[in-house]
Amino acid sequence: MTTTEADPTPLPENDAAPASGPRHAADVAPEPTDENVWLEDIHGEEQLAWVREQNARTEELLEDAEYEAVEAGILEVLDSTDRIAMVSKRGDFYYNFWKDQEHPKGLWRRTTWESYLTEEPEWDVLLDIDALAAAEGVEWVFHGVGFLRPADGSEYRLAMVSLSPDGGDADRHREFDVESRTFVEGGFDLPTAKGNVSWLDADTLLVSSTAEGLPATTSSYARTGVKLRRGQSLADAERLFEIPEDHMLAMVAHDSTPGYERTFAVDYIDFYNRSTSLLRDDSWVVIDVPTDVNISAHRDWLLFRPQKDWDVAGVLYPAGSLLAADFESYLAGTRSLLVLFTPDAHTSLQSWSWTKDYLLLNLLRDVSSEIRVLDPSRPDSEGGWTSTVLDACPPLHDVNAYAVDDEDAGPEGNDFWLVATGFTTPTTLTRGTLGASSSGGASAGGGSEASGVASQHAEVKRSPSFFNEADYEVQQHFAVSDDGTKVPYFQVASKDLVLDGQNPTQLSGYGGFEVSRTPAYSGTMGRAWLERRTLGASSDDGAAAHSRGGVYVVANIRGGGEYGPSWHRAALQENRHRAYEDFAAVAKDLISRGVTSRRRLGCVGGSNGGLLVGNMLTQYPELFGAVSCGVPLLDMRRYTKLSAGYSWIAEYGDPDVPAQWDFIRTFSPYHLLHDGVEYPETFIWTATSDDRVGPVQARKMAARMQAMGIPNVWFYEALEGGHAGASDNRQAAALQARSNHFLWRSLAGSN
């Protein structure tokens, strides 16, 4: 099965990957005084005592009776047994991972298609993670499986199961037999580490790992790829592939598609530059493309998505387009490329997926989904593949199409899933089939006379409703940023919204790594924010105000992928300020339209979104009444030295380089705090076990703000849960309840 996300974009042309080797001390930017470096010892006794003291203080503030009701309502959503059990097909079975109240760590299970279609499928439980954790005394978190393709065409049986001991990115990989429902005695069992695993054959794995003395990159990821034979240790495995220490990570993987078996290695130089090699005759052949052109192979085809405009033999292909070439012809030197998709000012490619005979493109047009079906067997008038728009995407919704099982030799090989969602539309799962239309006309569900592709699809499952969606309206607006760029945002509010500036409003954003924020149904947001009601607080002019609910807003700022690579690159490194100007423009637009006001407006973000709202806190405090800042980057001088921070230099720049620190310091919230500023109420939250961003930056920011005497600064650190901040539904409900309750207390009162 081949489903490919549109990868993030490259560095600007005048930037390069960090030079290898140590820098001379005189060439390194000086570090500002940091009184909180002691908090960087993540598991130190004194440091954890500080964390526990902070947690107790925050719990005393937040965990009142109203909080308990919010948390219970969220947990009911997360534990609902009526929600869709999403499945993936392997052979004749449909696999699912499921969490609920009785199984907080989850069940890995499978069923048949006939059973899945019923209201209560009969599930065959393969692995009970709660029982495993209890038996082994480890708080295991399930991170997925990778099956061995059976060589003889029999049913899938062996799989490598990935388990994290604390919810972090480091996994233990263990061989599992789905027929006996047990881990294979004496089977593959790789120590916990960051990396990846791919089956080469029944007795051999391709592994990238940092365990057993294998080297790590400066970014903390695997530097080598090895061939691990059954019974070997990683230390004794044959090393196949190695990258420089200052590159981000190495990966080796095997494509086991029958008739197209290939082994690849990828040198991820940074987030947006990579080099891919193919193993031929026991040596690596580098696929000749610029490092900022993302490639994927599928049977006879090699697909390309350039992150910058790409000149091939005098033909310029724009960034964000999708191109195709015959795999073997391209390796032989032919440079004849087919154009499958060209972006425009409103439309971008988000991902693609192959069925047996067709290619599905998932697009965004002004942040609403559009799906096109391409038929490689039918060229269009311009030499590409005939394209049909799939009739399945209502406005202001997110709809994704991907193959059910493109390697199924029967008619199911052209089946596809459709997952559709909207802010007030519970998620639906639809299954469809693509095929040539005998009449050339449209068939049920879509197709067109011009394309000759017929689509038949029908709804399979629908998520339950968790709030009264009919009472709410979704609108899309466009704010104007400082440089004149129009920035879209979604607003979800009651149909009787009064534009008097008094509505508690939660503004969410991300703006980084070419990640798109799209419409999505959230029973949690419905219950914890939209349906909560104020107590009739008085308005600014003293008039009595009616009770009102919350407003939820999602901003599609630059740095994200909503409009493709150019939208992302517009806010890279020295241009980072554009993402923050965009977000501030949305805040100002909400205020000018009368939706809210400074004291009623809060913002929330996590990870890179935590850096975003950290800059709202420090650069635009006059716009917000409260800030909820989760698992954040905040100390941009030392971020490259903390957890996996070095891997993000391509996004933010290298603070050790004086010229780059000059612009990075302008968006480093830890260094932008000043005395005498009226800051919004602030809640900073993180997780001890987060091995991606880590808890350190959040700790230091809270400590500095409190030491400065800034009022209403609160901190909470979950002791497990990894970068997600939660490893089960109970922890997730508590995390979401704390953030939402903090914002509501801060914004909805009579202050």
Walk me through this protein's architecture.
By secondary structure, the chain is α+β, with helices and mostly antiparallel strands. Among the domains are: 43-75 and 466-747, Rossmann fold (3-Layer(aba) Sandwich), CATH 3.40.50; 83-193. Helices cover 18% and strands 33% of the residues. It contains 13 helices and 40 strands. The strands form nine sheets. Strands 33-34-36-35-37-38-39-40 form an eight-stranded mixed sheet, sandwiched between helices. α2 runs antiparallel to α6 and α2 crosses α13. The radius of gyration is 26 Å and the shape is globular. The model is unreliable at 7-22 and 439-451 (pLDDT under 50).
Summarize the structure.
The chain is α+β, with helices and mostly antiparallel strands and 751 residues long. Among the domains are: 315 residues, Rossmann fold (3-Layer(aba) Sandwich); 111 residues.
Descriptive key words:
serine protease; globular; protease; Peptidase_S9_cat; 18% helix; alpha+beta; Rossmann fold; single chain; 751 residues; eight-stranded mixed beta sheet; five-stranded antiparallel beta sheet; 13 helices
